[in-house]
Structures are given as C-alpha cells and as structure tokens.
Design a protein that fits this description.
Layout lengths: L1 H19 L6 E15 L7 E11 L5 E16 L2 E17 L7 E20 L2 E21 L4 E12 L2 E13 L1
Antiparallel strand pairs: 1-2, 1-8, 2-3, 3-4, 4-5, 5-6, 6-7, 7-8
C-alpha cells in the first residue's frame, strides 16, 4: 500500500505541475537513455550493471530551465554456489534542469538535481533459502551532461548522475536520444 501511495503521489505531483506551471512552456522533448550503473549496496559487494530510462523535458517560463520527470530501471543479479541473488530499483522522479548557454547552437551542456521515489526489491533463492523483500525509499540525485543536435528534431544525450538513496546509492553514466516536440 505504501508503494502504491508513493507512486500515485509522484505521478500526481508531476501531472499537477505539468498542467499548471507549464501552461506557458509546453513539453519540449522526450527521450530514452541507457548506460552503466555502479550501485553501492550496503548488503552486497559493490558491482556494476546496466540502467535504462525514459524522460521528458517541460520548459519553464524562465530561460534555460526545465522540469525533467523520469522513470529509470536497473537490475543486478548473481548466481554463486547455487544461490540466486538479485537487487532491482525502479525510480520515479523529477529534476530541475538548467541548460548552460553556449555559443555553439548544436552543443548544449546542462546540470540537474531533483528527488525521486525508489521501488527497491532484493531477493535470494537457493540452498533451501527463499527471501523476497521490497521497500520504497525517497532519494535525491544530481547530474550533468550535454546534448548534441544531430538534426532539427533529434539530439544525442550524454550524462553522468549520482543518486543518494538510503540503502542503494549509485552513480551512472548514460547515453541516449531525445526528440524535440
């Protein structure tokens, strides 16, 4: 129930903000991204895995500011001595993104920070042991990156992020595509 309420709260907040504050600045872009994540899990030895996500950019009335709602997913798993261990994180959140003005029209660096709800799940199965535990935690993230225009409607995106969550802090490097609306 706590997880469902958290999801509903984040979706409602993003929808409410999008419908009122963005009336003067509509949806500007949507994008997909994937990359490398290095989770620092307190319960398991640190390891590396992949991350994937989708996002949108809503322009604010102020120049160079965007609200950037997103959904990201990463999963780490291991099989050692006939015991399967896995940990996954689904993050729903939003960032405030500031694009740094440059003389180059096609190259646009940015910095961003925001909050998110993380739906965490850890499971262990094997050798007569079966454990499956889920938890919902709030987190904060900060990042920086750049956008390179490859056409009038499409950009290549590169970024680096650090996420602070109670039991699953992690940093990631990502690349992706964004389509201007």
């Amino acid at each position: 129930m706590k997880k469902l309420l958290s999801i509903v709260a984040v979706v409602a907040l993003v929808a409410l903000t999008a419908s009122s504050a963005f009336a003067g600045g509509p949806l500007r872009a949507v994008g997909i991204e994937a990359g490398y994540v290095s989770p620092d899990l307190n319960t398991v030895e640190s390891t590396n895995t992949w991350v994937a996500g989708v996002y949108a950019d809503f322009g604010l009335p102020a120049t160079n500011l965007y609200i950037n709602p997103f959904v990201n997913y990463w999963n780490w798993s291991e099989n050692a001595n006939s015991v399967d261990t896995s940990f996954r994180d689904v993050a729903l959140g939003a960032n405030v993104k500031f694009t740094i003005p440059t003389a180059a029209v096609r190259f646009q660096p940015f910095i961003a920070a925001g909050g998110s709800v993380h739906l965490l799940n850890a499971s262990v199965d094997g050798s007569g042991l079966s454990l499956d535990q889920s938890d919902t935690k709030f987190g904060f993230q900060g990042g920086a990156g750049f956008s390179v225009g490859v056409s009038q409607s499409m950009n290549v995106i590169g970024s680096g992020w650090y996420n602070m969550v109670e039991d699953a802090n992690h940093w990631s490097l990502r690349g992706g595509l964004a389509w201007n609306i």
